[in-house]
Amino acid sequence: MPKMGTKSLNRQGYASLLILLVITFLLGVGSISYHKAQAQEKMANYEAHKIQAIYLADSGLEWAKANLTADPGWGGGSRDLGQGKIEVTVYRDTSGYQVISKSKFKDAGQSRSGYLILNDIGQLVISHYEELYK
Questions:
Q1: How many whole angstroms separate alpha carbon 132 and alpha carbon 129?
Q2: Rounded to whole angstroms, how far apart are CA atoms 85 and 78?
Q3: Contact 90, 127 (CB under 8 A)
Q4: How far apart are the first and last CA of the chain?
Q5: What is the C-alpha separation between 60 and 90, in angstroms, rounded?
Q6: pLDDT tens digits, residue range 16-50?
Q7: What architecture is domain 6-132?
Q8: Residues contacting 125, CB < 8 A, separation 6+
Q9: DSSP 11-41
Q10: CA 20, chain centre distance (Å)
Q11: Smallest Cα–Cα separation from 134: which of 115, 113, 120?
Q12: pTM for the full predicted model
């Protein structure tokens, strides 16, 4: 039986080591790519929830305007809308209504403030609008 030379064994060892290093490298790159994609998906979902919370907060101002038109003594309230929630608070003064609308949609929240006054034909309109920050 012929004996294998040490050069042949060394070549096989180097080839095995090279294959192991390539596989380890590819696994590392795959893992990093997976985690980056997961983080991007979380950020995109949060941004979508934030936009929905903005629309909910704005709709809270419109909800307040409709309720104050029907009942000038309305003091606010809250509504659950599926995965979102609106909380509206109304403060009345001599010239109009200060309305604060807070919304939450899943993990994102937004707050808006509006000042409602009567226009020339007796309709409530938003004269001042701003985003509230925590």
A1: 10
A2: 7
A3: no
A4: 83
A5: 11
A6: 888 999 999 999 999 999 999 999 999 999 999 99
A7: 2-Layer Sandwich (3.30)
A8: 116, 117, 118, 119
A9: HHHHHHHHHHHHHHHHHHHHHHHHHHHHHHH
A10: 42
A11: 113
A12: 0.74
